[in-house]
Amino acid sequence: MNITLITPAPPGSRAGNRATAERWGRLLGQAGHRVNIVTEYHGQPCDLLMALHAWRSHQAVVRFREEHPDTPLIVVLTGTDIYDHQHRFPDDTLESMALADCLIGLHHRVCQDIPERFTPKLMTVLQSAESPGYVSGPKQGFDICVIGHLRHEKDPLRAAWAARRLLKTSAIRVINAGGAHTAEWEHETLAEQQSNPRFQWLGEVDKSAIHELMNRCRAMVISSVMEGGANVVSEACRAGLPIIASDISGNIGLLGEDYPGYFPVGDDTELARLLQQAEHSPEFLLELEERVTELAGSFTPESEQAALLAAIDKAMAGRTRLNP
After folding, report:
1. What is the pLDDT of residues 23-58, one digit of tens each?
2. Is 137 within the bounds of a domain?
3. What is the CATH number of the domain that holds 13?
4. Dihedral of CA 286/264/231/250: which sign?
């Protein structure tokens, strides 16, 4: 099958949407499909269109459906689609969802967060991660990593602010890896690093450096205010790295309703308490590690590939029913 996959992120970008598109291109290519990744749709025919972002890809979705009414269409719902754009820009976002034969959500709670009329179209595809190598021997110190670009949705300095609340005797350091989306974020992060001895910003680093950081850290904090299903959660689970996460739908939809490592979104005090508990309670840290290790099998490339192929089957079946 000849598949066109649209992503708003250009080649070379380290944005999550670009990484998802390229990973899906590889997985679908391994299954025998031909995948063309583009940032704009110019009317070219294909056997199936897959659009990342309901709102950003709206014009492409509308044009494709008008020009190719018999061809299956999949729309992938990102975090900003679900938790922002469907409320701020409902006409375009919901029209993309309505025109799709299949919707892909990236965590298990998306069905609760979109209009009920669209849930019969919904398929869940959990993003995968390779299992990183492990460093032998005990870990030194008590470093906590925060991995993600510096922008509002990630609330990236929350762990640094929480670390300010720790006892002077704490060994915790917060290490942040991610590029700043704006000059304002860069300025604020550099200022935090200058004034907070428990915080270090690495800037944007490559995948091998991320794996090395995960290997030497005791836990990861994901403090986002919105997520569509963060791939860094998959990576941490595959690495057996305990996660402390904000209690947003996108995190709960990956880690489970009863995961013990949640804190209220934006709550420095509760995050500081959990960091302190992780540092001083080996039992708590081990419980988090066991839980993420149990989840690791859900985030394999094989599982993601199978889910993608099932979504394609659903889109084809849905289009066939409309055009017998």
Report:
1. 999 999 999 999 999 998 888 899 999 999 999 999
2. no
3. 3.40.50.2000
4. positive
